[in-house]
Amino acid sequence: MPLRIDVITIFPDYFAPLQLSLMGKAQQSGLVTIAIHDLREFTSDRHRSVDDTPYGGGAGMVMTPEPWGQAIDAVVTDQSTLIVPTPAGKLFSQPVAAELAHSTHLIFACGRYEGIDQRVVEYYRPRIDVRELSIGDYVLAGGDVATLAMIEASVRLVPGVLGNPESLVEESHQLPGVEYPSYTKPPTWRGLDVPEVLLSGHHDQIARWRAEQSTIRTTHNRPDLLPGS
Ligand SMILES: Nc1ncccc1[N+](=O)[O-]
C-alpha cells in the first residue's frame, strides 16, 4: 500500500523539487504518491480570496476556514493524518518522521500569512489524526518549506525508498547524539590528511574513534542530545 501524500498550498510551484532525485524516484517506484492542490481552486469568489483580517485585531491576515474545509474534504478519508505546519506546533523530529513514514495518508495544510483559522484544526481533530508540527524555533513566511522538509525526512524512511537501508542505522538522530565526521579520497587535500585510523583497516579502532568523535561533536554542537541531559 503506497504512502499517499496530498499537499494543499497557495504556492504549488514550491513543490516542484519533489519531482527530483530521491523524492522523484520514490514516486516513480510507486512507493509514494504525492499530489499538490492549489487552495485557490477551492474558493468561490471572483478574487479567489483566501484570507481576511484577524478577529480581536492585530497585524497581518488570517486564512479563512472555508477554502480549507473544501480542499481537505476533497481528499480526506478516515485513514488520513492532517498535518498543519506552524511555529506553534510540536517539534518535528526523526521519530515523528518514522511515524509519518508508516502512515497510510498524509494531508499537509500549508498556511501562509498569520496562519489558518484555528477552527479548521478544531473541526477535523474529532474526525482524524491532526498534528500541528514545527520544524524549528524560527518563523518562515509559510508552511511550504516546512512541508518540503517533513516530506523529505519522512519519505526517505519509507521501506524501499533508500537503496541502502544500512545508511539509516548509523544516521545522526538514530543513535544518541550526532554523527561522526566523514572523509573520502584524496587521502591528503590542501595539506590536510584524513585521520590515520580511518586508513588502518582496524574496524574496532575505527568504531571506537567514530564513537569518540560523535561524543566530541555532540558535546560541542548539541549538548542537549547528550544521554542524561
Ligand atoms: N517555523 C515555521 N514558520 C512558519 C510556518 C511554519 C513553520 N514550521 O516550522 O512548521
UniProtKB/TrEMBL annotation:
It is found in: Cytoplasm. GO terms for molecular function: tRNA (guanine(37)-N1)-methyltransferase activity. It catalyses: guanosine(37) in tRNA + S-adenosyl-L-methionine = N(1)-methylguanosine(37) in tRNA + S-adenosyl-L-homocysteine + H(+). Its main location: cytoplasm. It comes from the Bacteria. It is an enzyme of class 2 (transferase). GO terms for biological process: tRNA N1-guanine methylation. The keyword Acyltransferase does not apply. The keyword S-adenosyl-L-methionine applies. GO terms for cellular component: cytosol. Keywords: Cytoplasm, Methyltransferase, S-adenosyl-L-methionine, Transferase, tRNA processing. S-adenosyl-L-methionine binds at residues 111, 135-140. Belongs to the RNA methyltransferase TrmD family. Homodimer. This is tRNA (guanine-N(1)-)-methyltransferase.
